[in-house]
Amino acid sequence: MEIIFNEVSYTYNIKTSLAQKAIDTVSCKIPRGNITGIIGPTGSGKTTLIELITALLNPHEGYIKLNKFKIENNKQISNINNLRSKLGLMFQFPEEQFFQPTVKKELEFGMKYFNYKLPEIDKRINQALKMVGLDESYLERNPFELSHGEKRKVALASILVFNPKVVILDEPTVGLDNRNKKRLVKLIRRLKLIYHKTIIIVSHDVDLLYVLADYIVALNKGKLVTSGSKYDVFSQEELLTNNNIDIPKVANFTNKVLKRQKIKLGNYCEINDLIKAIYRHV
């Protein structure tokens, strides 16, 4: 599902003296079937952007188009539940929202609320567990007793049970150690490559996004700074730095070699591949 923003603006407390524009005339696209990273300093509008995508907020100006759905000001979305069923949103520290005594009850809760039939519930739970790399032995386990990495997988499975076309992850690696971060990276790639999900990741971790994302949307103070392939975006070092956005370590090194030595090493997102490229030029 491709997502298109057309001159979208959103203002908090719009009718008061405390009015604050969180998104300011943003036009960009989030490509279908790719992993898109949304970056920017604190307060840049990243969270507001994903709340607009999921129709938790409606834009005050412009519109957002998701296939046949159109989100705009003062217009009711026909069959909004159908739209939201295609979008899966996982917030920061989603495991803090667990409240059921077993993984199975945690995963089936939302489907029971929407009146799914029991055979369909069991089928979807098993499919979701498979997607995140957990087996059926986890179903009767207490989610509060799982490791941090396992909890994050269960939280992700709880949105995958609805088989959304778009998966939105808000700071998915926060609180995870390096080992669990690497496991989550593999899992997210799997969701894209095997299950063909469109994935949106909001993160301050630009090194993670440089490895994982295909496409980047950069924001600052509610405005679009730039967007495009990760290699194009992170080559714009001066623009990003002026907008308080960090450059991934690998991209920063590559940019400096090009600037100072006039050597174009090429596009590499993994440090090992970059080292090999350097040796080839020695």
Word description of this protein:
With 282 residues, this protein is an alpha/beta fold. Helix content is 39%, strand content 22%. The strands form 2 sheets. Strands 6-7-8-3-9-10 form a 6-stranded mixed beta sheet, with helices on both faces. The chain has a 4-stranded antiparallel beta sheet with strand order 2-1-4-5, covered by helices on one side. Helix 3 runs parallel beside helix 5 and helix 4 (118-131) crosses helix 5 (148-160).
Number of helices: 11
Distance linking N and C termini: 44 Å
Q: Could you tell me the radius of gyration in angstroms?
A: 20 Å
Placed side by side, the strands forming the largest sheet appear as: 6-7-8-3-9-10
Q: Share of helix among residues?
A: 25-40%
Topology, number of strands:
10
Salient structural properties:
11 helices; four-stranded antiparallel β-sheet; alpha/beta; about 40% helix; about 280 residues
Layout of SSEs?
Layout: E1 3-12, E2 20-30, E3 35-39, H1 46-53, E4 61-66, E5 69-72, H2 80-85, E6 87-90, H3 103-113, H4 118-131, H5 148-160, E7 166-170, H6 178-193, E8 198-202, H7 206-212, E9 215-220, E10 223-229, H8 230-234, H9 237-242, H10 249-261, H11 271-281
Parallel strand pairs: 3-8, 3-9, 6-7, 7-8
Antiparallel strand pairs: 1-2, 1-4, 4-5, 9-10
